[in-house]
């Protein structure tokens, strides 16, 4: 028998999911940070109005740009909706509500969610 071909290499799925979810949560916060920075700039304020412990503006801006590229270009519309509803919305939603809202069956939902997470991980160079 021939070995089954897989789009993704054999890796720890839980570890990948954990890393991607953590990065998505950071991305949410970094988007706000960049909006705040733009707002300050528009008002003519060049310095941060809050204490700043770490200088990481360039890295954070790159993280946001690369995460947006991964979300917009590597996912189909349904995968993007799942990720936005599950990890990027202001209120926490559970999987059951999401797949019911999207009109998906449980199995199809979890397949799409898994594929989306692996596509994000692949796009960002995590795997």
Automatic annotation (TrEMBL):
InterPro entries: ArpU-like. This is ArpU family transcriptional regulator.
């Amino acid at each position: 028998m021939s070995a089954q071909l897989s789009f993704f290499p054999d890796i720890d799925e839980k570890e990948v999911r954990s890393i991607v979810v953590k990065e998505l949560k950071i991305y949410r916060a970094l988007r706000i940070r960049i909006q705040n920075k733009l707002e300050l700039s528009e008002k003519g304020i060049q310095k941060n109005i809050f204490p700043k412990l770490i200088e990481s503006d360039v890295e954070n801006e790159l993280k946001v740009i690369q995460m947006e590229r991964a979300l917009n270009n590597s996912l189909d519309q349904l995968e993007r909706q799942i990720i936005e509803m599950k990890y990027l919305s202001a209120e926490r939603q559970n999987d059951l509500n999401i797949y019911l809202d999207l009109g998906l069956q449980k199995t199809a939902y979890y397949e799409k969610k898994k594929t989306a997470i692996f596509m994000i991980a692949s796009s960002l160079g995590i795997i």
